[in-house]
Amino acid sequence: MIIEGIGASSGISIGKVFKLQKEKIVTSNQKIEDVKREIELLEKAIKKSEVEIRKIRDKTVKTIDKKHGAIFEAHLEILRDPELYGETVKIIKDEKLNAARAFQITVNNFVNLFEEMENEYMRERAGDILDVSNRVLAHLLNIGIKDPGLLEKEAVIVAEDLTPTDTASLNKKYVKGFATETGGRTGHSAIMARTLEIPAVVGTKNIMRNTEDGDIIIIDGTKGLAIINPNQNQLDKYKDLLKHHTDNIKRLKKYANKKSKTKDGRTVELGGNIGSPADLQGVTDNGGEGIGLYRTEFLFMGKQYCPTEEEQFQAYKEVLEKMKDRPVIIRTLDIGGDKSVEYIGSKGEMNPFLGHRAIRLCLEQHDIFKDQIRALLRASIYGNLKIMFPMIATIEELRDAKKMIELSKEELIEEGVKINREVEVGIMIEVPSAAILADQFAKEVDFFSIGTNDLIQYTFAADRMNEKVSYLYQPYNPALLRLIKMVVDASHKEGKWTGICGEIAGNEKMTPLLIGLGIDELSMSASSILKIRENISKIQYKDAADIAKKALNMNSSKEVEKLLKENF
Ligand code: PEP
Ligand code: MG
Questions:
Q1: pLDDT of residue 121
Q2: Which has fewest Cβ within 10 Å: 84, 275, 453, 471?
Q3: What's residue 166's pLDDT?
Q4: What is the pLDDT of residue 134?
Q5: Distance, CA 4 to ligand 1 centroid (Å)?
Q6: Topology of domain 2-21+148-251, per CATH?
Q7: In what side-by-side order are the strands of the sheet with 225-228?
Q8: Which class is domain 264-508+518-526?
Q9: Chain-centre distance of CA 457, in angstroms?
């Protein structure tokens, strides 16, 4: 059976299905009579959770490091906490409540208590308690927990949806690919898949209904297909394709230490997009000349609390030190849209992508924004940092955001902390208003980086997560090309530069067009860098500029695609 979807991360994987089904944890007020039995159930659930967490801890120590393993050590301590157990048993006995509800009440009381504490460390423990208790509750309610973190064999994950946090926690060693029912090419799970270099297909309607655990599945992330229980012919064909793909990767290695230069000598910087310090290796292995986009929100996701200034500082410092003098563009927090975080931001918005997102949220939640800016400035002396604001729509937003940098600089200098006072500041061009007013913005920033994932969704008014309107994701459309051109020209006029860090930067077919439009930098998933460098080495800038000029005067994506096909 072949299920069509949207190719989210190219490459091919063949493996066995591991279905990730998530169930909601809902407890009831049901009274019980057999108190002893209920206490036994509680003890059993705690024991089971203990065994599992120990396993996860051991695996984490082995595959990551001791420091990460310690998180689970702390979880084990919570599980063994005599008060947590004692209070639950008391409620079961006094109120004759079932164990699950009694446990949930106790946990909530604990969490509330911890959340109100002055000490930040103690406040953070509230999140850990919730994490652990969900596991115990799932056992009490007989909800099967399928933990991709516990995978011990290679598998292909099939799920209705994977949150960006789920994707970030996937273990590349075992997860060979994934297919989800929802999502679009520029949704953040798809982006994470490309960062992790895991072949993936999204928007595969009904795949959950049509697969069983252990089925053989082929993921064709390039064409956007999932083939379930393939026949021998299909298997043979895909094994060949897989080999071809691997050979191609080997062939491209020769571009790893080369400059990105057109035939007639125009250089274009190629950077990598990352979501955490762990993604750096992929970028350096693939010859990235810098980091064009560090999506810092992944530091905030999958947690129950905001990372502290110190935690952030350590992460930024690590990236800057490892990249030495190569540029590292760190984007400030972009929460909202499809990247939600439990503890920040508005819930239940009608249109999250048009809502309280990114810089809008930061300019309101000053404490969170300030922690991040301080952490960035402290890290600024460890490498070549550039700070970038996402989703800027108006000049006032830019000025307010820059004020936060100035304020934090003054504060840190007063505290005697060393910082780079000249750190460059740029903005993402993601909202059409900023593209249209780029000539004005160019006077007040050091650089632009065009976020085409969002710029396309806002230009065509088409939700990037909704597969029904994915036909409006039109990167070749002259409407978008004209916006790009306006931004590039505006920046050059002021002696500044423009890059692209949206997914089109890694689109092989678009390289001549983007170079022809005068783009100075492209930043993409690590796995695309070498291919794009090869493409650039085959282009004459002069020819590309002529073609781009023609494309700007066409009237549809189709015409532009045809023009490119005929010329490159
Ligand atoms: C973009 O919008 O193109 C971009 C790079 O930002 P994100 O995908 O994180 O929204
Ligand atoms: Mg964006």
A1: 67
A2: 471
A3: 66
A4: 84
A5: 25
A6: Glucose Oxidase; domain 1 (3.50.30)
A7: 2-4, 225-228, 216-220, 12-20, 155-159, 175-180, 200-202, 6-9
A8: alpha beta
A9: 18
Residues 6+ apart with CB under 8 A from 473: 184, 185, 186, 456, 457, 460, 462, 464
Instruction: Please identify, in words, the CATH class of the domain defined by 35-140.
Output: mainly alpha
Q: With a cut of 50, which residues of the chain have pLDDT below it?
A: none
Decide: residue 9, CB within 10 A, 0-12 exposed, 13-18 middle, 19+ buried: buried
Q: Which residue has the tokens 């009904």?
A: 206
Predicted confidence at residue 434, as pLDDT, reads: 98
Please give the pLDDT value at position 310: 95
Find the ligand nearest to 187 CA.
1
Mutate to test the pocket of ligand 1, among 354, 498, 501 (most ligand atoms within 8 A of CB): 501
* Ligand 1 contact via 334 beta carbon (within 6 Å): yes
Report the residue among 291, 295, 300 best suited for mutation to probe ligand 1: largest number of ligand atoms under 8 A from its CB.
295
Domain with CATH 3.20.20.60 in the chain: 264-508+518-526
φ and ψ at residue 16, rounded to 5 degrees: -100, 145
What are the residue ranges of CATH 1.10.274.10 in the chain? 35-140
Ligand 1 near 297 CB (within 6 A): no
Alpha-carbon distance of 226 to 231, in angstroms, equals: 13
Mean pLDDT of all residues belonging to the chain? 91
What confidence tens digit (pLDDT) does each residue in 485-531 have? Answer: 999 999 999 999 999 999 999 999 999 999 999 999 999 999 899 99
